[in-house]
Specification:
The structure is a single chain. By secondary structure, the chain is mostly helical. The chain contains 18 helices and no strands. The protein has helices at residues 9-20, 23-35, 39-67, 71-78, 84-117, 126-138, 140-160, 162-188, 194-202, 211-225, 231-237, 246-273, 284-295, 299-333, 337-356, 372-399, 401-410, 417-441. Helix 5 (84-117) crosses helix 7 (140-160) and helix 6 packs across helix 13 (284-295). The radius of gyration is 21 Å and the shape is globular. The mean pLDDT is 87. Phenylalanine binds at residues 19-20, 22-25, 97, 223-224, 226, 229, 231, 317, 320-321.
């Protein structure tokens, strides 16, 4: 497997943004906002994205670009000792992410297929829509089948080599995606009750924000930016070793947070207009959006377009999750791209079996009150991503900082350095420890 490079800086930005903008922004963000009390959550989330998220994104890109290798190998090349364990942990994290990501990706395929073949399904009755979501996710055959379909499409793209395909795909899809979101928002804000929802989303009420909410916002900020799991180390390793990083990182952060803001502005007002329960959880987008489409002329086609775009957004992310796993299998065990994708893909699909059955036959099969799907999300969001972020922060802040500083100066961003160092070296690790302690000891 020869080391590929991005075609251009724009190509890299779009691929990295393609990884960042995905189910985190469109599917997870709105229901976390719903669960954790609206505007205050949004503010805390944005704060994390633009401070710690940005700093760690830059740090990961720097590690990858400098080492020209994906996580485990990169740590070994740059420092050795026990640092490669941070890389191995990040592979575990990526595997677990795909263990539930593929399931939701499968739902997007199901919604496209259903909207396409069954125009009679358009309704704005939220009970019918909730029942439809539950039927789809709880029947083992459809849950496993759609998950398998999404997993296979992801694997096919990774086998083909992502750079050319993904770069080109993102260039077309990203603008289309943002335009569609804007059009839908304009539509939804005109529905009765919707403005009230938008106001709730945008006006913070800190009394509704708990410590768990803050930890979840940190985890989601990392998840949405794809940091904390070595993914940006991999994508960074395909950049030319002299290429500047700060502007790329800023673009990725800006596009990812814009996607979150827009999807919140779409889904939350719709939720108010159609009186869907804010704690509807993972089904939220899949229940509110079809209700909205049912009111629009040509709604069936808009529904197809919307879920197709969500599918593509998910695909440009899932590919970026599988790619570093394949690259790890290559670096550590000499697997070819084909073999790595097959082995990695099959292993991940095995993990998807319990997660995809969590909404049906395995819903009572819980650990700490969580079925496998929620458990995987919890381990990723609350434990592994912050832990990976901590590893990267300590590494860049204390081990390779002089090189990072030199690189910042070289690209004309030297004045950021005195600001970035304390964030990366001290504030990020301290914040992560404080949040964990609070979560562990709060009743
Ligand atoms: N950022 C992606 C999303 O929001 C998920 C992701 C996480 C992708 C980690 C790569 C690595 O959907």
């Amino acid at each position: 497997m020869t080391r590929e490079n991005w075609g251009s800086q724009l190509g890299f930005i779009l691929a990295a943004a393609g990884s960042a903008v995905g189910l985190g922004a469109i599917w997870k963000f709105p229901y976390e906002v719903g669960k954790n009390g609206g505007g205050a959550y949004l503010l805390v989330f944005m704060f994390f994205v633009f401070t710690f998220g940005f700093a760690l994104l830059l740090a990961e890109m720097f590690i990858g670009r400098t080492a020209q290798a994906s996580a485990t190998m990169a740590f070994r090349k740059l420092a050795g000792a026990w640092w490669p364990w941070v890389g191995r942990m990040s592979v575990l994290c990526l595997v677990l992410i795909l263990g539930f990501y593929n399931v939701v990706g499968g739902w997007t395929i199901a919604y496209v297929a259903h909207a396409f073949f069954d125009s009679g399904l358009t309704t704005e009755n939220n009970l019918t829509l909730t029942a439809r979501f539950h039927a789809l996710t709880s029947q083992p055959a459809s849950a496993l089948g759609y998950t398998a379909a999404f997993s296979m499409i992801t694997a096919v793209v990774v086998v083909a080599g992502v750079q050319q395909g993904i770069e080109r795909l993102c260039k077309v899809l990203m603008p289309l995606f943002f335009i569609t979101l804007l059009v839908l928002i304009i539509w939804v804000l005109q529905l009765p009750g919707a403005l009230e929802g938008a106001r709730g989303f945008l006006s913070p009420d800190f009394s509704r924000l708990s410590a768990e909410g803050i930890i979840s916002a940190l985890g989601l900020a990392f998840f949405t930016l794809s940091v904390g799991c070595g993914m940006m180390i991999s994508y960074g390793s395909y950049i030319h070793s002299e290429a500047p990083l700060v502007r790329s990182a800023l673009w990725v952060v800006a596009l990812a947070s814009l996607a979150c803001l827009l999807s919140g502005l779409l889904v939350i007002p719709a939720m108010f207009a159609f009186q869907v329960d804010p704690s509807a959880g993972p089904g939220l987008v899949f229940i509110t959006m079809p209700a909205l489409f049912a009111q629009m002329p040509g709604g069936q086609w808009i529904e197809i377009l919307f879920f197709l775009l969500v599918f593509f957004a998910a695909l440009t992310s899932s590919v970026s999750i599988l790619e570093p796993v394949v690259s790890f299998l290559h670096d550590e065990f000499g697997f070819s791209r084909h073999r790595g994708t097959l082995v990695g893909g099959l292993f991940i699909y095995m993990l998807c079996i319990p997660t995809s059955l969590s909404f049906g036959v395995l819903s009572d099969w819980t650990v700490g009150g969580m079925a496998p799907f929620a458990l995987a999300g919890y381990i990723v969001n609350d434990i592994l991503l912050p832990a990976g972020g901590m590893g990267v922060a300590l590494f860049v802040g204390w081990v390779v900082w002089p090189a990072m500083q030199k690189s910042l100066i070289k690209e004309g961003a030297g004045r950021w350095a005195p600001l970035l160092r304390p964030v990366i070296a001290i504030a990020a690790p301290a914040l992560i420890v404080v949040l964990w302690l609070h979560a562990a000891f709060s009743p």
